[in-house]
Amino acid sequence: MSGKELAKLLDQMQAQLHLDASQRERLGAGSQTPWWLSGLLGLAAWVSSVLFILSFLGPWLALIEGTVGRAVAGVLLILAAVYLFRRRQPFTNQMGLALSLTGHGLLLFVVADRLGSDPDTLRPVALLGLLIATGLLWLPSSFLHRHVCALLMLVSTGVLIGSGAALAIYGVALAALACVLWLCRQRWATHSQAQRIRALTDAATLLSLLLALMPHEQLFHHMVEFQMLEAGHWSDAIYPAGVGAVLLGVVAWLGRRTAGLEYGLALAVSALVALLSHSAPGLVLSLALALALFHAGNRTWLLLMPAFASFYLFVLYYSLHISLLHKSLLMIACGVVLLAVARFIALRARRRA
After folding, report:
1. Are 162 and 205 spatial neighbours (Cβ–Cβ below 8 Å)?
2. Alpha-carbon distance 274 to 288, whole Å?
3. How many Cβ atoms from other residues are within 10 Å of residue 262's Cβ?
4. How confident is the model over 54-63, as a mean pLDDT?
5. pLDDT tens digits, 126-143
6. Which residues cross the membrane (predicted)?
């Protein structure tokens, strides 16, 4: 079978079976590599990469000292990674990932070292990181490398935005982007850029879940010492209200074909849950993403949502912005509302039967 025929067949299978980009890649490779063999190949590739990088950087930096030498070495490592990605083999993909990350980090180190250790120099470094990650995302590479590049793009954008209300809006925008992309998964699954869209979707999902920690000032202040990302400048209203709006949007889109009474009830319950859980916006975000992921049929992320929700409950418990009694009453009220809705749905189902 020729390459064009194989690509056409894979397009048809992806459209009919709603295959992921990773599943399409495995089918195109001809066979699925066992997990233990993939792990051994990955370990061997990273060991080989470390040895290669050490043997290359040592003599190179000894011959060409200073900023120019490090910058050229970073560019050469990235070019070598691009060449390895074109081989499309498990070993070369892992080795290319190691070389790409090393070259990327070396270029960022050159710029940071040149500008000094002032916190204001984070933005030029983040801008360079954004440009490099964007360029590497559009080049042929592996599934894991695309996800790393997409995550670096979004993180660099967050550093460029800074702190305060702008970063809160960025967190809400990421949550909305992740939910919209998951809800529209069937539309972009067959797109020519589906692999990159999937990487951006996963990266937006992960980073939005991590940014949900930011409103918890007391906990996050001890976790992060970068002033640019400090949570003390966050508004108490922007992020919870934005995440609540995302939940309402997801429920409104999913229930757009239901009856008027049930549709209105779903919107009212969503608004009430968002209001009761305003002190733990991570729980609201987990619920919104879980609904979108269930619609998209992604079992991996869907299985992770309860773990994230449990973690946000843990964070809420140790937050000091409200009393423990207040937290308990809010969670009890939220649970009562959800149980009442579940009971109502069960009774409606019995009457229809």
Report:
1. no
2. 10
3. 13
4. 78
5. 899 999 999 999 988 888
6. 35-61, 67-85, 97-115, 121-139, 151-183, 237-255, 267-294, 301-322, 328-346
Q: Which of 130, 104, 119 has its CA nearest to residue 163?
A: 119
Terminal alpha carbon distance of the chain: 53
Are residues 171 and 237 in contact, defined by beta-carbon separation less than 8 angstroms? no
Residue 66 three-state SS: helix
How far is 156 from 129, CA to CA, in rounded Å? 6
Q: Which residues contact 2 (CB under 8 A, 6 or more apart)?
A: none
Per-residue confidence (pLDDT) for residue 2, from 0 to 100: 47
DSSP secondary structure of 111-136: HHHHH-S-GGGHHHHHHHHHHHHHHH
The CA distance from 84 to 96, in Å, is: 5
Among the listed residues 87, 189, 104, the one whose alpha carbon sits nearest the alpha carbon of residue 142: 87
* pLDDT tens digits for range 170-222: 999 999 999 999 999 888 888 888 889 999 999 999 999 998 887 665 444 44
Q: Residues near 269 by Cβ (< 8 Å), separated by ≥ 6?
A: 337, 338, 341
